[in-house]
Specification:
By secondary structure, the chain is mostly helical. It contains 11 helices and 2 strands; from the N terminus they run H-H-H-H-H-H-H-H-H-H-H-E-E. Helix 1 packs antiparallel against helix 8 and helix 8 packs antiparallel against helix 9. The protein starts with 6 loop residues before the first helix and ends with a strand. It holds the Pfam family Nitrate_red_del.
């Protein structure tokens, strides 16, 4: 492994991957977004902040949160510093802002027709963007080796980026548990599985996905989410000696 992670770094990567998974897979919820705004969640991150894409993504999402908090303060006639979750959830300005995020999330990632920034591996790598093909089945097999199954697996593709980031978070958690138990062989095998999953199913199409998200996102929130997810993947891939080449727009093994 090119850059082994400490126990603390592994724990931070696990949390960050889970957050990224939720941003893409779960429709924005007022209570969740209120917590993000009230706690300045995107002012920092536990893992990957040295990556420029990650830093740009955090900055954009933090701008959205600050602007939203300020708009709510104007509506309520109070100082932005006093606006917490309760005030946000009672604000019509905030509820409309989250409503706009939900519409944007649907347009970008879910879409009644073709999403503008599809999160499916199949969309980018399968002939004619065929769903439930080899990619989906290969990812499903990876999940099953760890006792996991998508709830609506007959109707919902397994190769959704949000699900795959969540799976990586799970693998990191298992590696962390193995290392804490002193089981070096299992920890190494889990790290190798993470690398293979990244290389086979996530990294090959991540740059086109980020470009689509950046091109079609209307808000700092989702422009930032695209950069955050991409930068997090870049930072995580570095542990395996894999870097993003900006000239060729591909991921390559460091020589």
């Amino acid at each position: 492994m090119e850059h082994p992670l400490t126990i603390e770094q592994l724990a931070s990567a696990e949390v960050s991957l889970a957050v990224a998974s939720s941003l893409l897979y779960v429709e924005p919820d007022p209570a969740e977004v209120a917590a993000q705004v009230a706690t300045d969640q995107f002012s920092d991150a536990p893992f990957g902040t040295e990556d420029p894409f990650m830093a740009a993504g955090l900055a954009a999402m933090a701008r959205w949160c600050t602007a939203t908090r300020t708009a709510v303060a104007v509506e309520l006639g109070c100082d932005p510093g006093t606006v917490g979750e309760e005030e946000l959830l009672a604000s019509s300005v905030f509820i409309e802002a989250v409503g706009a995020l939900r519409r944007e999330w649907l347009r970008l990632f879910a879409g009644a027709g073709a999403p503008e920034a599809s999160c499916l591996e199949s969309f980018y790598v399968e002939p004619n963007s065929h769903m439930f093909g080899k990619c989906t089945l290969a990812v499903r097999s990876c999940y099953r080796r760890h006792g996991l199954q998508v709830e609506n697996f007959r109707r919902e593709p397994d190769d959704h980026l949000g699900l795959m980031l969540g799976f990586l978070s799970r693998l990191v958690a298992e590696e962390l548990a193995a290392r804490e138990a002193g089981d070096a062989a299992t920890a190494e095998a889990l790290a190798a599985e993470q690398e293979a999953f990244l290389v086979d199913h996530v990294l090959p199409w991540l740059a086109p996905w980020r470009h689509a998200a950046a091109s079609h996102a209307a808000s700092d929130y989702f422009r930032g989410a695209g950069d955050l997810v991409f930068g997090l993947a870049c930072a995580f891939a570095e542990r395996f000696g894999i870097r993003f080449d900006g000239e060729t727009r591909t991921f390559k093994q460091r020589k």
